[in-house]
Fold each of these.
Amino acid sequence: MKYQIFYRIIASATVLVFALTGCSQAEKSADVKSTHDSTNTMKSTEKTDSESSSSEEKNNILIAYFTVAENSGVDAASSASYSDVNGEEKGRIRALAYMIQAETGGELFSVQTSVVYPADGRELIDYADKEQSDNARPELTSHIENLDTYDIIFVGYPNWWYDMPQAMYSFFDEYDFSGKTIIPFNSHNGSRFSDTIETIQELEPNAHIITDGFTVNERDVSDAADDIAEWIDRLGY
């Protein structure tokens, strides 16, 4: 009888040990699963936040540009301001703007005026000279919507007589870029930026002007994509 009671006690204790062990393992498994789920949730949240941040950075970039090709009222074949880019005729500054957009995801904005600029190269040079002499301010017919949403403004223009086209003076007269970052890019026929970056600094004294702008000879615009990619990477955009 004593032995029977003893064996019953041993059996009950064994069952209790297995029961407790099973509970402990279940609790550990639940803890591991909870930790795994929590980690996955954190990673998913971090990924979503990163993607959202990247999207917001792209959405706050505006690429504003002036090109005669979109202000002359003629087709590509008869305009002196076009370049062949991958078999397609494009205004030179527009072509550069598209290359910048490909690297940054920014939004494009074409500066357009009521002036119909000459398509012929010689006539255009003479017209630009007269505009500068008159210190003209061509009327703008395109306007930036929701300027406050943009923090970074790429600004593109050709170099005419060692200066920006007068349409760009109208552009800077119209907008206050205080607190924003302005990044110039241009095409030229040997004079690069001349003093145009300094001029932009004078016109927009409360903006941050990046002096490391992108400039390219108009004859090399069609091959500028790789150089622009390197430039954008250097700027960190």
Note: The mean pLDDT is 80.
Amino acid sequence: MDVNIYVLVALILLLGFIFGRLLRKVGLTSVLAYLFAGIIIGPVLKFTTPTQFDAVVTAITLAFVAYTIGLSFSFGFLKKMGKKIVIILIAEVLITSLVVGIFIYLLTKNLPLSLILASLAPATAPAGTIAVLRDFRSKGILTDVSVAIVGLDDAAAIIIYSVGIVSVKTLLEGKASVASSFIYPAWDILGAIALGGLIGVVLSYSTKRAHLSSDHIFVICIIAAILSWGLAEMINVSPILTCMILGATVINLNVHVGNRSNELLDTIMTPIFILFFAVIGMKVDFSQFVTIWTVVIMYCLGRSAGKVLGCSIGGMLSKSEPKITKYLGFALFDQAGVAVGLALLAAHELSGYGLGALIITLMATTTALFQLFAPLGIQYAVKKTGEATA
């Protein structure tokens, strides 16, 4: 059903706001509320949005999210993190992807679907994880490592997704040349690093000696993030990785602009997230639930097992404390923003291959499930390690 776009946007924001407040009162994340608002408006009421609206909301949201993720990677933070964190991160990300890919392939024998779900699986939701840790006033080594890992997980997930999406398109198009197998993924990643770094350098040095007000910084960072996304699409490199590199460059070359832009962007993210997750909810296809419930279960089991196993192996390889090896994986179950955002991005990229609606429905469903039981995993980890003080 067609409806005036301005009325539709207002309705989405209103329902997201109301449902968000209701769910927060019972201890659930607002992300579920935003998804639910989209389901009410789309599958239930049958309202539709223009394709361009969905694309713009997705691009702007992911551009800002990737930029703010990049802003967390200052040299000081990376140095403080240490070698142990890097080893655990690599093991956790790779093993989670591997386990999910194997589980899904054994069930479906669908290699493209297995690869795309494997590339989406590592991302952990920082906001939800940190919210639970704060709720329990958790303090200690497990808490510190959890916060560091969830900040880096999304960056690693973006890189893995960049490789995975190109590999899946190569399979679906039936091409297996050296160019498609190596050069295209390399260009997708290295081109994004070069573009994001270049824009970040220009932004950092052009604003370094200028006396900019908060309004000016706000406008400039929005321009830089959206411009980076648009130019990345034009030259066929990863837009989300480009924006992440932009943020990492800015925070290391111009700390004032980086920190201030992070604070300012945070003030507008709630309505943007409402629209973004509602767009996801509107695309959920309930008619596919009958055929995908086994895939949903296998994905959740594979991702959970991969997180626990990966952190255990990473902990042993890095000679970390026993509490890290045993319990860190349970603190990393949460799945939300970046995973769902990458799923929507993948759906757009694979829309011509019949996988778009399936991927969105799978990720929306599994995100809802992880939002329900991930807090229990985090609670279990901090209580078993004695780091919960509330």
Note: The two ends are 49 Å apart (CA to CA).
Amino acid sequence: MDNLINYTLRIADNALILGQRMSQWCSNGPTLEEDIAMVNISLDLFGQANGFYEYASSIDGNKSADDFAFLRSEREYFNNLIVEQGNGHFGDTIVRNFLFDTYSVLFYTKLQNSSDDTLAALSSKSLKEAKYHLRHSSNWLIRLGDGTDESNKKVQKSLNDIWMFTGNLFEMDELDTDMLNKGIGIDNSLLKSEWDKKVNDTLSSAKLNRPEDGYMQTGSKEGIHTEHLGHLLSEMQFLQRAHPNAKW
């Protein structure tokens, strides 16, 4: 059961941390319409996270969804490194989201066939939202890449800077393998070829150059993160830790 809980937490953590990042765009978007769009994406992600945390809570029997979300330490989070990276400028956010959104659509597409009925149902629901998120980020990537020389230059740098975190998406460890063998989880490594194709096609339309697959930063499956996560958690968890079990 521990493996199923931890597998579920990995999925929930991705949604929660990226949702928190996107919520930071509230009142900071480049246009009012885009401000609203990014906050709505954040709400989608929080909804996904809550669904998976509630499932983990039902399996655990002791911890609530809020306990999992707000009362774990940095080393107890298992989100992919890419989702914790800072928002930066608008182009940085679009590149980060596009790379993860592409993976997310592929991941949920496969996981909706899980032998675990709850994971399958949650994945099917999340997939509908993930497809919208990908449409949003890919359309903007093309607009920015195929825009002015300045916007192309900026998003190319964003792509170059964040590429090192993409390898983390396709790693498999003992927990992944156990879930795969039980028919519950999926083989992340098998998503890579289709992810490559979809990413390459969009980058071509955006007139952007795909970085070389060189050094890839890793460690999230063992709870090892970049410096960004600790700062994000201190902000996200402050109220719950300052006023435990507060109701409003």
Note: Residues 32-60 form the longest helix (29 residues).
